[in-house]
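Hi support team,

I submitted a single chain yesterday and got back a structure, but I'm not sure I'm reading the token output correctly. Could someone confirm the output below corresponds to the sequence I sent? I've pasted both exactly as they appear in my results page.

Thanks,
R.
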Amino acid sequence: MNARQFIGMNSFNLSISRLVAVACICSGSVLCVAASAPSPSPVPMIVAYVFPRDSLIPQGGVAAQKLTRINYAFANINDGRIVDGYSHDDQNLALLVGLKQQNPTLTVLVSVGGWLWSGGFSDMALTKESRAKFISSVADYVSRHQLDGLDIDWEFPGMRGATTHFRAEDKKNYTLLLKELRSRFDKLEDELHRPLYLTVATGADSDWLAHTEMKKVAKYVDTVNLMAYDYYEPDSDAITGNHAPLFTDPADPKKSSGDRSVQEYEKAGVPGAKIVLGVPFYAHVWGQVPAVNHGLFQPGKQIPHSDAAYGEGPQAMLKSGFIRYWDANSAVPYLYNAEKQIFVSYDDPESLALKCRYVLTHKLGGIMFWSYESDPTGALLNAVDDGLNKTMSSQGGDK
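Hi R., thanks for writing in. Yes, this is the structure output for that exact sequence:
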């Protein structure tokens, strides 16, 4: 899938609920002094996209206590309505909702769309009537499955994705869809007697911002899951690169990074506290990469079906002739095998720790990752859990 509020020193807006002590000696030139309890630091979220497809999620297969939110991927759109995407969705959603017994603060959302299933969004969002039809089906779906809300993963409004079905009107219709969903959720909350969350998964490049109204969108959504990965992909990039760099490497022809995307989103009007930084639990792989600069920013070719989950890819490759290198400028690792001329871009526990530190330093909403199944060892989730929650605890924050 993912605000930075500053109170001016000349503005003392103290709410009654936060007032803990008042010492007033109001005589002569003595000022009244009000003491306020410090605002606790917001607890950063850990958002997991769970993508079992047609498989059943096994009992004990999700570490619920390490997660804030699960976005179950994916529901589809059929005839303008939200529908199940896979054969075991009912069972899997029931299992995930049941995890609240282990973690009562866990929220479970369904994510609709995704890369392959975004073709129905443009038609669905086109008119007020078509949006109302979809929103009514969402209300029924959320109520029936006892979910905590919806994640819209439209890839991409007004732009080509896996589908060529888009139109210029998508820009304003995307905003209207979210506005009307939020309004329906506000009413549904009163019926269900619990909060409902509306989130979006968004692209990390300038084109996304040019084709959306994110300042308006930010008013209606709880979080923006910023997909700060796939900046480089073997099927579309003829040179290698870091596919999830935290900072911009000066040698990067694209000058891309998660930091740059966050800054662009904030400039576009999205509060930092609503931005959840996306990280990948999978690797991108290029072949035929010459042994220059250990393969980084060099010509390369796609190797069909080579992109790999963390546990099956980078971890295994380190045992078979690959050498790990570190791009200090971007704060991410990569692998290279000079004999096989293969380059691998990925995240590991060290880079994730730095991304967690970035989230805390910049007061972002948290970390989102795609996807849970890509690291059965749990090493990456543990790194995120340690990087956010243990760091917060050591700094005096609340879990």
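A quick pointer for reading it: The first strand starts at residue 19 and ends at 24. Let us know if anything else looks off.

Best,
Support desk
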